[in-house]
Amino acid sequence: MTRFGKRLISTVAISALCMVAAVAGVGPAAATSATSPAVVVSKMTGPVSTSNTPATWGVYSTDLGVMWDNGAGTILAAFGDTFGNAWTPPGGNGNDWRSQVLLRSTDTNLADGMSFSSAATDAPGHAKELIPSKKIDNDEMTVIPTAGVSVGSRQYMAYMSVRHWGVPNTWDTNYAAIAYSDDNGQTWVTAGGPRWDNPGGTNNFQMAAFVRDGGYVYMFGTPNGRLGAARLARVPEASVLTKSAYTYWTGSGWSASESAAVDVVSGPVAELSVQKNAYTGGWVMTYMQGSDIVLRSASGPTASWSVPQVIASSADYPGLYGGFIHPWSSGSNLYFALSQWNPYNVYLMRVGLTPSGGVDKPNLVADPSFERQTSGTASSPWACTGNCGVDNGMWSVSGDRNGFVRYNSGWHDIHQTVSVSPNTAYTVTGWIRTSANNDNGFFGVRDVGGPPIAEVNFQAVGAWTRYTVTFQSGNRTAVELFTGAWTDNGDMWVQVDDYSLTRS
């Protein structure tokens, strides 16, 4: 895994602690798209998150968000290396280091974000470390969750013991294993379960993705690091903790020999997540390939998987990784958890699916998060009316940059022209915050160079807040998105980030 500079945690010097993203792509990655089809829905963890995880459970910064249904109406979400109130972005650093934490959610309306209702705790208001780690480099640096599944009331969680974070895209593991919990994730038992040792660094099942189907638990596996291919095993539901019960896909059948497993998805594959999807009637997977998150689909786990399609580009979400599917994604919406190294937290994302498992209803906004801007002066595809620009100082919702307008008199806005189809319903979203004296701001869509089609008025907005407008395109083939304000109440500013325009 990539290191983004050395940090100190208490007295332990580390170069990185978490599933950080590669700066440069590796291997035959899918081509980076002109835009990222996926949309930012909400911040799942950290400051200004939907559930205020810092104040609620001491989760100031974390990553991953491996999610599964506990079988009783709750989503369990396992996060990686987690830090307390001394954390400062970017990256994993600070006090109260826990190798993993677990939050629970009963939120069924993902359209407005994902909230958490409880956590596995060791004290009121403090999410606990689930599985202890030594936190000693070149011995056991940390223990990272990679997958979860429920069978009956028992929860199973796959994890890897990381010995050392190496050069970009590589790390060494001691072994991978499966722990279980019979109390909804509060306590975990690691003894007696299956284990895939990795003394030579060549084991192909160090990271996992679980899918329960037809009386089996299917386990997709990848090696340590981000350069390997995905292979496939399965085990009867009643035998998840019995290593000898696992069989491995050979390309033509199932074998008890682990060495007989063949690639089902060629590398590089990293942070794999797989779902049997009710909307498509087939299987979908998301994973990090090169420096982007991609989507693929297939009729079944052993079938041929489609060509990868980029759903989140590192050009728009720098330092991205993860991409773990929310099990309650329904209809044509696929929700997934995306991590970013800066600000080292997790976001709920959404991408549309076609019935065949491809990308549908993509975000039509170019440079939606302003991360492709190269200076403080707004440049194409963004433009200004009056005074606007681009901040680069970790004030944004995600990543490093956001747009702004600022002045002390008159109207000022930042805008972009976007092509649309006639007679089509669209939804526009964006995140806004303002100076305390803002009293007349507007977020919306207008005719190109003309009057508004739909807009919402806002006054002072303290924390980043998501705004939404909907409109019908009529006979138009292009519209102009805008965020602006009448700045007649002294020095005023408005910041905007993570835009989207999608078909409704």
- Figure out the total of helices: 1
The major pleated sheet works out as: 5 strands, antiparallel
Class computed from helices, strands and strand pairing? mainly beta
First and last CA, distance: 38 Å
Q: Would you count the extended β strands for me? A: 36
Please state the oligomeric state of the protein chains shown: single chain
The rounded Rg comes to 23 Å
Quick one: overall form? globular
Poorly predicted runs of 5 or more residues: 1-32
Helix content: under 10%
Q: How would you portray this structure in words?
A:
- The chain is 1% helix and 44% strand.
- It has 504 residues and is an all-beta fold.
- The strands form nine sheets. Strands 3, 23, 24, 25 and 26 form a five-stranded antiparallel beta sheet that branches.
Quickly list its features.
about 500 residues, mainly beta
SSE order and pairing:
Blueprint: E1 7-9, E2 12-14, E3 39-43, H1 53-57, E4 64-69, E5 75-79, E6 101-105, E7 118-119, E8 121-123, E9 126-127, E10 142-151, E11 154-165, E12 171-181, E13 195-197, E14 207-213, E15 216-222, E16 231-236, E17 247-249, E18 254-255, E19 270-276, E20 283-289, E21 292-298, E22 309-312, E23 320-325, E24 333-340, E25 345-353, E26 359-360, E27 383-385, E28 388-392, E29 401-407, E30 411-419, E31 425-434, E32 441-446, E33 452-458, E34 465-472, E35 478-486, E36 492-503
Antiparallel strand pairs: 1-2, 3-25, 4-5, 5-6, 6-7, 8-9, 10-11, 11-12, 12-13, 14-15, 15-16, 16-17, 17-18, 19-20, 20-21, 21-22, 23-24, 24-25, 25-26, 27-30, 28-29, 29-36, 30-35, 31-34, 31-36, 32-33, 32-35
